[in-house]
């Protein structure tokens, strides 16, 4: 027997079982009704005959009682048959058919369920137990898949973080910073606000690595990045450009305010040493500032800020230079 035949057989077997159950129930009900009617009529007849003294009248009453009993049996049997037929049709439409379709659908979905690790006994005779079993199997399997989805979601979040943020300092990496520049530039243009690019470079960072080790250098980068991140405004952009270089994009009303903000960052970096394994490591930074404009692209502004940074280095470091 192939699967299609098994499915048809399952549907027919359920229909037959449900119909037989209700048919037997209504036949028993009809028989009980007829029996009660019969006993009632016999009792009434016997009681009527006992009250009559005349034999002819007693025979007439007895004949009438028998006739009434026969009529009662016929009427009760017909009513029981009519009611049972109507009830079976209603129950078939409201109960049997939906149950059959449910079981048929579950069996039809057998191949799909097997694809997620759920196997069903197609030729089982207990369809209700089958539904119960499959329900719990599906629930258990769904929980496994939900757990997998949650793990995948966590991995996706980690992947996005690694794609957008610098793994050491936790600030935007160079690629993500460049992607966000466009939207920030559009917002600033709508507000008619001047925008500036800062290039920051930690002074003598190679000396830190050579003197205290690369672990100390990493700690310096993390601490300084955290200080600057806590200083910039929520709507400013700040990221790691590469190595010991950081980049910032912000809006300001004019170049003087932008330069003053750069001076504030320079002071925050240099005012406190970085503590690492009992050693205080002094750190300073040089900052180059350039202003963006409709005729100067982001790349050109970065190049100009880098030139200003080189000028700050050349003029003694730990200072701010504006193009």
Written account of the structure:
The protein has a 5-stranded mixed β-sheet with strand order 2-3-1-6-7, with helices on both faces. The chain has a two-stranded antiparallel ribbon with strand order 4-5. The chain has 9 helices and 7 strands. α9 (298-314) links the parallel β6 and β7 (320-322). The protein is of the alpha+beta class. α1 runs antiparallel to α2 (55-108) and α6 (205-212) crosses α7.
- The proportion of strand residues reads 5-15%
Number of helices: 9
* Main sheet attributes: strand count, strand direction, barrel closure: 5 strands, mixed
Provide the residue-averaged pLDDT.
77
Q: What class do helices, strands and sheet pairing give?
A: alpha+beta
What string, H for helix and E for strand, traces the elements in order?
HHHHHEHHEEHEEEHE
Give the N-terminus to C-terminus distance in angstroms: 86 Å
Summarize the structure.
The protein has 323 residues and is an alpha+beta fold. The chain is 69% helix and 11% strand.
Ordered list of secondary-structure elements with their pairings:
Elements: H1 3-51, H2 55-108, H3 110-115, H4 127-164, H5 174-190, E1 195-202, H6 205-212, H7 214-231, E2 237-242, E3 245-251, H8 255-270, E4 274-276, E5 279-281, E6 285-291, H9 298-314, E7 320-322
Parallel strand pairs: 6-7
Antiparallel strand pairs: 1-3, 1-6, 2-3, 4-5
Helix pairs in contact: 1-2, 6-7
Please tag this protein with its features.
single chain; about 325 residues; alpha+beta; five-stranded mixed β-sheet; two-stranded antiparallel sheet; 9 helices; rod-shaped
